[in-house]
Amino acid sequence: MNNNKKAYIAGGCFWGMEDLFRTRPGIKDTEVGYIGGSNENPTYGSHPGHAEGIEITYDPNETSFKQILDYFFRIHNPTTVDRQGNDIGSSYRSAIFFQSEEEKAEAKEVIKIVNDSKKWDGEVMTTLEPYSKFWQAEPEHQDYLVKKPDGYTCHFERFDTSFI
Fold it and tell me: Which positions are catalytic residues (predicted)?
C-alpha cells in the first residue's frame, strides 16, 4: 500500500531545487510549480505572489519531513529576503508551505536548529505559509536541468553535514 506524503517548499528558482531533491533517499517524485499567490492557473509569465516551488512526494518510511527541511536549508540561502543568486522578487522567496500544525511545529524546530548552528551568517528569513494550492508549471520547466544539464541554477550543497 502506498503511504507517500507530499511536502511543499520554495527556495529560489525551482529548477535547481528540483534537480537536487530528485536523487535524495526516500524521494519518489518532484514537480515544479507555483504556490502561495493570488491568481488561478498561474504561468511562468504570470504568477503574481506565487513562489516558484516544488512538490516533493516522499515515502515517510525512508525519509521524514524534518530531513527534507534539513536538506532544504543546506542547498539554498535562507537568510535572504525574496532573493536567490541572480533571481530577485517574491517568486524567489524562501518558504515552507505547511499542511498541518505538526508540519508547522517541525518547520519552526528545524529553523531554530539552523539558526542556533550559526552556519549561516544571518538569521533564517524563510516564511511559514499555510498550504494553499500547488499549480504545476508548464512541461518545459519540469526536469529542466535533466533536459538542459548546463542550464542555470544557483542551488548547490553548501554544507556537507546535516543540521539535525
Answer: 13
